[in-house]
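Q: Please design a sequence for this.
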């Protein structure tokens, strides 16, 4: 019995040392020198030739010199604002997540009926509750 306990203890110590060594020599794979040059050169530019030309055209239209265009206004799409083109706010996904994170909301009128149904469906599929 003592030999079994000793072997178990030695095995645990070996595993502990292995995990300590592994964490001590851990090297991040994604580093600046391992990134693609394309990623390093990537830029996010709100300004560019197309948005600037769009502003020029809108200025012409505003000054009354836009008769040469088959439209009466432009819409800036370079700023990531889908509401500028009439898309409503995406509240459904937020409501479903809220219902999963805070289940007490599912018994209130704070969430739409559809969002409550979807949250309950997902809740049944989850092994552990969200947000805990």
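A: Design:
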């Amino acid at each position: 019995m003592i030999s079994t306990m000793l072997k178990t203890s030695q095995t645990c110590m070996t595993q502990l040392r292995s995990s300590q060594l592994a964490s001590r020599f851990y090297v991040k794979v994604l580093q600046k020198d391992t990134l693609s040059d394309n990623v390093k050169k990537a830029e996010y530019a709100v300004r560019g030739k197309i948005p600037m030309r769009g502003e020029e055209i809108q200025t012409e239209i505003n000054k009354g010199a836009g008769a040469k265009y088959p439209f009466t206004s432009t819409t800036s799409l370079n700023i990531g604002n889908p509401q500028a083109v009439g898309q409503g706010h995406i509240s459904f996904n937020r409501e479903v997540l809220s219902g999963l994170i805070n289940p007490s909301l599912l018994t209130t009128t704070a969430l739409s009926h559809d969002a409550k149904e979807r949250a309950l469906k997902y809740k049944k599929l989850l092994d552990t509750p969200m947000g805990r």
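Q: Thanks. Anything notable?
A: The CA atoms of residues 75 and 85 lie 7 Å apart. DSSP finds five helices and no strands in the chain.
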